[in-house]
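Page 42, continued from yesterday. The earlier attempt failed because a stray header line got pasted into the input along with the sequence. Redoing it now with the clean sequence only.
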Amino acid sequence: MTRTSPDEFKASLERILKRYQGAIAIILFIIGLGLRILAIDKTDAFWKITGDLGTFLAAAIAIPFIYESSIRAVDRQIFLSDLENTLEKKLTTTQNNSPRVYEIGRLPLQQKVAFLQEAKREVVQIGVALSSFSSYFEQRPVSEFKQPVMELLQRGINFKILILDPDSEIAKNYANDRGEPNLVDKIRRSLVTLSHLRDEFRAASFPGSFELYLYSHFPYGNVIMVDPEEEGGCAFISHYLHGTKRADTPVFEVYKSSNPILFEKYRYFLIKILGDSRKL
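This time it went through. Structure tokens are written below.
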């Protein structure tokens, strides 16, 4: 024998009540109205009580019962529906306001390109060696990265690329702390590649510029910021973690429209680093 769960029993009971509650209300109303009619023009105490009982059944029980089973049920359903919509909108807004997190680390190249193509005015990127960034121009097909960047330059988008100064004491100390003895050489190789690209883009007379900067502050992370001064500004942010490869550090996607205070802090960070940097 199949055992009925409490939820199934409750649902079955609710169906039965909904099916018969209307009929019960109508029957009570008819009985009450009939008793009231029968008592009309009757003067003795029995019929007076009968008439009052009919009025009570029709007015005090049947009509409120009908209201409870139909009108109030509709009001309750409307209220619950409105509450559900409000909660759903609130939840959606909360989710939209939360920065998106990519826990695995460095994003696929296609996603980076799509991110850059949203630019309307400027792209600013800061990193340590930016060896992966520079390798995209040399080791990937032109159509995958170099061509999209040139198209952005043709649209008048300005690039500002900030790299750790390989001649600074901070670069040497950072390399020792990270256990990366070849880091300074990697920075120099990236600078050679990016300098050649800067000269190539400059010779092409693109409306947009491709500028290189060296900074001598401690490397706090990798930040790619698109249109930091515009309302539609957005950023990919990755904080370096000791003992974790830079490529494996989580990436946060932040939008100025959703998190203006958070976005402003990173924008100010870039402004300060850029102000102390040396343009090549």
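Notes: The two ends are 84 Å apart (CA to CA).
Reminder to self: strip header lines before submitting.
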